[in-house]
Amino acid sequence: MPLSAPRRSALSDQVIAQLRNQITSGEWPVGTRVPTEPELAEQLGVARNTVREAVRALAHNGLLDIRQGSGTYVVATSELAGVMHRRFAGADARSVAEVRATLESSAARLAAARRTERDLRQLDVLLERRADAWHAADVEAFVAADSALHLAVVSAAHNEVLTALYADLGDVVREALRDQVSGAPPEEGLMDHRRLVDAGRAGDGEPAAAEAAGHALSCPPAGARA
């Protein structure tokens, strides 16, 4: 979405709000290199020091990471996600997997009873995207597709609190998955996900919960290939 010039006097707060919206709306996904200070100042019609203050505030809140000589990057989609990322960066992969299993199994059980046809269509699309990334041995595409699929399963539970909590853990989950995967993940991971989606489609809560927990607790060795 295009940025617009602030209208009120509290320029710094307005710039912070606009930049935060770019992040939380998905316009600037995690990993995005944001425009430079001069570019943002020109787009917003404010002084560079106002932009600098806003960027520093968002970096302090954990949404942005200012990397000297490289630029400023989006590292979290909300303040809570930023806190989660800082708090659990480098956490033991097994611990992350156990938290995933707890949240995802509960969500999958609820999703089996509450999912809509729209949810199921979205899951099918994401399942195919995940398979395509696996066949292409594209690690980053696979991590993105796998994360999106699991978030879609959680979202299908139609519990806003559960979805928000899981989304805020997303950066930690993606980092753990990226560490586990090198090249292409093992083929059985694809089969597990098809069974997960099929259980949700059939409305089978317990099998869906078991599939979700089983996948979250599986830790493919780095370098595993089909």
Automatic annotation (TrEMBL):
InterPro entries for this protein: GntR_C, TF_FadR/GntR_C, Tscrpt_reg_HTH_GntR, WH-like_DNA-bd_sf, WH_DNA-bd_sf
Domain HTH gntR-type: 9-77
Keywords: DNA-binding, Transcription, Transcription regulation
PROSITE patterns for the chain: HTH_GNTR
Entry superkingdom: Bacteria
Keyword Transcription: yes
Protein name as annotated: FadR/GntR family transcriptional regulator
Naturally occurring in which organism (per UniProt): Streptomyces tremellae
Top-level taxonomy: Bacteria, Bacillati, Actinomycetota, Actinomycetes, Kitasatosporales
